[in-house]
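Board notes, transcribed. Complex of a protein with zinc ion.
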Amino acid sequence: MVSLTFYGGVNEIGGNKILLEDKDTRIFLDFGKGFARRAKYFEEFINPRVSNGIEDFLQMGLLPDMEGIYRDDLMKMAGRKIVEPNIDAVLLTHAHSDHADYISFLHEDIPIYMGETCHLIIKAIEERSNREIEREILSYKPRPYNRKDSPIERKINTFRTGDRFKIGSIEVEPIHVDHSVPGAYGFIIYTTEGPIAYTGDIRLHGTKSQMTRDFIEKAKEVKPIALIAEGTRIKDEGREESEDKVYKDSNKIVSSTDRLVLADFNFKDVDRLRTFYNVAKENDRKFVVKLNDAYFLKWLSKDPKLGVPKIDDENIIIYVPKKGSGTYSDSDYKGKEEQFIDRTNAWTAEQIAVREGKVLCGIGFFSFTALIDIKPDPGAAYIHSASEPYNEEQVIDQKRIDSWIEHFGMNKFQSHCSGHARGKDLLDAVKEIGAKMLFPVHTEHPEAYKGTVPNITLVKETVKYTI
Ligand SMILES: [Zn+2]
Ligand SMILES: [Zn+2]
């Protein structure tokens, strides 16, 4: 009566798309973009064609080839049969692309459940970026594209931890977990056969590890018949890492220099954002954020629990990049950017340049052209606060970063705390929950879970597992 079918996140990190069926109720747990899968066929100069509707995505296995789940406009363009949607809901664990982005292709009548904070993050992402086919989570414009068409809004239901809600024959209990983005949840799903637990992405060494503990304890208490667990770093021994260490490392670097400091980190990681904001404050420097990241401050400061500074915070400066005319003319920033560039705390590279030792810039590799305008004095610090390269492309990117560092005579530092639990923490968590069956996902090494529980399924894609 109850089954699980995995359409993504199988022997790959991310791209989770897990179908849970209970009698007539059918829900997806996440509906993410599989980056490795996409990169197998596509790159910068070759992309799935929007002119072919959904067909390129289906043919190349980026999306499961199913009826009754996708948007009519894209199915029609692909010459596919249009049928009524037959999915009751999608439960989204968190706002990362590898869990959320391919909701973009789903039929608008399928309700999407997400945490309130997750909703704010997606709003920020969608306001700051141009509409594109792979990122239309909250609303979409029908294709073929017509400027005048108004967007079609999806049905979004938000929840907080402690809420419980029913979808057909199942009941869902979301429980907060700690991860490198706020508004992340695991789920306990009460089915007719018993409870199924799904971790989403978790860590136990972060600032809010208690939240993940809450999930583990609740999962253990309900005695789940099945556990779907992430295993990103299952093979990682783990080293000393914590947000506090990132703070201390960075503070040491910043306090011992009077030169420009750049910090390269993911702005959706609110812990990291707070870390660098505090390091800047501690060292009497202004914290400079990119124009593109100002949307995160705008939306995330609405949730007081996150402690995200407001756009008009006295320690925040917005970096306005050169555009259009190259003269910072008002007409270069028409549209949604207008709301930020008129502020007194909106600075150009030239304004930053005369205050090199008085700023900490949240400026990463993708904005390195700013350095051409800032012309930093030699000896500036570049703090890379993200994971170290782990595949070929990232090694190539790293070389490119190094060239810039060398060109401007900067010093490079590395300090990071991962969003994913270490191997031992994952093994302990899975043992503690003690589910009857384990389905590892979001990992290239599912077999590394052997020995934790008696019944482990090394998942095969599209196979239906009866629970
Ligand atoms: Zn993920
Ligand atoms: Zn994630």
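Residues 14, 96, 98-99, 201, 442 surround zinc ion (ligand 1) (CB under 6 Å). DSSP finds 14 helices and 23 strands in the chain.
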